[in-house]
Amino acid sequence: MRQPGSLRRRSGRLLLYGLALILSAWVLFPLFLIAFTALSPRPAVYAWPKTLVPDTFSLDTLVFFLNSHGVLSATLNSIGVALITLVLSLVIGAPAGYALARFVFPGRETFKVLILTTRAFPIVILSIPLAVTFIQWNLYDTLIAVALVHTALALPFAILVTGSIFVSVPKELEEAALTLGCNRLQAFVRVALPLALPGLAAAAIFTFVLSWNEVFAATILTLRNRTLPAHVLTVLNESPLPFRFAGGFFMIAPALVFIFVIRRYLLNLWGRVVK
Amino acid sequence: MAEIRLQGVHKTFGKVTAVNNVTLTVRDQEFIVLLGPSGCGKTTLLRCVAGLEYPDRGRIAIDGQDVTDRPPRQRRIAMVFQSYAVFPHLTVFENVAFGLRMQKRPDDEVKQRVQAAAGLLQIGDLLDRYPAQVSGGQRQRVAVARAIVMEPAVLLMDEPLSNLDALLRLQMRAELKRLLQEIRATTIYVTHDQVEALSLGDRIAVMKDGAIIQSDTPLKVYDEPATVFVGGFIGNPPMNFLKGTLQMADGQVVVSIGGQFLRSAQGQALAAPPGFQARLGNTVLLGIRAENIQARTEPVPGALPARVLVVEPLGSHLLLTLVLERSEGVQVDSESLKVTTGADFAVEPQPPLWLLLEPAKIRWMDPQSGRAINLERV
Amino acid sequence: MNRRLGRLGPYLLLLPSILFLVVFFAWPMAEALVLAVQSPEGVFTLEYVQRMAGDVAFRDALRNTLVLILVIVPLQVVLALGMALLVQAGLRGSGLFLYAWTIPLGISDLAAGIVWLTIFTERGYLNSFLHNLGLIQKPILLLSYENPQGLFAAVVVAEVWRATAIVMVILVAGLQLIPREYLEAAEVFGAGLWQRVRYVMLPLLRPSLQVALILRTILAFQVFAVVVALAGRTLPVLAGEAYYWYGTYRNTNVAAAYAVLILLLSILNTGLYLRALRTRAEELAL
After folding, report:
1. Strand partners, B33
2. Which of B118, B119, B216, C82 is least buried, going by the fewest C-beta atoms within 10 A?
3. How far apart are CA B3 and CA B29, in angstroms?
4. Is C257 in contact with C36 (CB distance < 8 Å)?
């Protein structure tokens, strides 16, 4: 029996809504779960069966994690590496992105294709030979070593994203500045940069998160100066459950905050890297 | 206060020749319009003068100095862009003041000059706003103010009115003309709108395929186009071009179209200008504008019979589209003609009309080359 | 003079990036190849490759990695496509949905593994839930080496949860590029929803699909931390073996051999995708 069109449309819409809600729950629910676990007292972690929401909230588990040997320094290391990566990839990558956006020159398409293909290569392969090299250069087990590899990972992304950010700033604005007395650098600083800044900031934050989350290279390249993921990974399967859960939560939380901050740019950032 | 000299300027982009060996001199304080269809190279030429493109060959001099290799900021130019290029992150005031700030002018001088320019363009009360908060037409004024506040020697304008709606465009055109007469800068203005060109320029340079076809006063370009292209491009409606044959009759070289010997409105045989004897027997193109053709409802000897296809009442006049009638057994070009008549000319489609051409306004063209036949040396 | 410098400009801007990528990308790749087939004396040898291939865990690692990819990637593509279409459907609040679904982009694979550990572990939420429903009395031991299927399933779930966002974001961007008029025209000419998806959206989405598949599979070949978090070493995978050969066994050469293997598989796979999903430029005239 055919329903009147609007009713069918509405039930169709409801169905879609339901689907969307289910998918959202699927994504969000586990995050709540780990938050609850990390924020419950240590005995509760071992308790079984678990209640959905803990009876008491407590920072006990988190504190236990943070006080564990090596965690605090690993966290500081992670922050340091991420900051260095952020700075390096923008300082090296943004000029290339600007060149791609503004200039037409022989080799431009080739360069673009090369950059795109670098994303088709696994990072695994980078860390192992680089570990050997870094030992020779006395760079092994340093933050800068990890940052260099992370920059290599983030650089193609930085180049393409900054390229598309600068493309979105109309060329004519800089040309107008040129006719009003600016040289190229002044035109860039006074006109292109202010307008590109929000996008660049978002790209910077995303690069930070990328570095913060990276596990494999960080583990291979460090021994005593581990980053947080490297440290947690190495001690993971010998650690008690509260440690693991609190560690997971602690790694996720700042990244979640950052992603929230740049949520409006996320789609643009990732989507643009395609083209 | 500067003369612009372009010599042999040539610019290619890959395989495309955008500017083809252009030589042009713009006198001090002259207002010249570069007019042409899209892709004719007018904007590229302007950008070469601005320094935003560097020509592959040729030299550009402003006020006697060779600026071919100099960046824009060393050329004493100011430019208004087609998209206005008003800086979104600065207030209207700071936009207009931008060039002055680059010159590190003292604050009170900046303030005074910006307010003067803003006053001229009637944006004085918008100075604290951001470009996103003002309309497109107002942004255009900001762009113009930003350029004229610099008191440049050379003012370059790239289709500044084309993004405005029709009514605003009309209004701004008049304002711009009055404004630029006061400014006294040598101005190069690019447009594809021939009405703008006729209205604004001291001189019009019509461009096609990267070259300047004709460079003359508006009146000359209108009445005496150098080629069929110019005649068809300028004027609304475009110039009509009739194919005629030159034949002898009564000791004169006269024109016949479709077997019909033409007479002028005064009744005399339509004679070719002196010196056309060499072209006897050849076809020739008669360029004649819609307003220079008289239409009669009764047959008149020497008039061209034509059938009315469309009547467009345009308020102040009628625009008729006609097609020439076949003479018995003679092939006539089936091209349509445009003729304007008074608004109360009683006419309907279908019945034939008889057309008389105004001899003084005929522009004789060579059909092979498309060029006007120079009347001094035929 | 100014112009000659101007012409160099773009190359100067590109130079740092090119240098960096050569040193920290191109060269290490070559180095890995060398490490895998060259003995410390500088002699070409297949010893390390043989050691890798002969290792007890090798076949399992290879098989596990490949099967994981075969299961995870199609699942993710379908899921991501569904999410992308839902976003395009223009429901009220689709912005919120989109944001929620992109959250996993900020979660590392290690953390994702731990998140699902809280659920799948013996005293975790899944068992608690099943118990509260009265379905089980004692917890199911999902993540033990006696239950390889359980381990496998757990890894699949965790990876799908974590990485679908990567595919989805690319697809959403690709969908947004499709001019609405194409879909509206299709609707006017009688195409229903499914037909519009199948005959208009999907073909025009092919380049984005291609990119998303390539990216996601490259990442999937490197699956490591999720497996460690959920299964320790009981579920061998290629990247994991590379790690253990480097760190625990201290044999850089065999580790390099694993790395080269992953590289070759990735290249092969990319080639496959490029062929299977190739679109001619004319087909796309967007």
Report:
1. B189, B204
2. B119
3. 8
4. yes
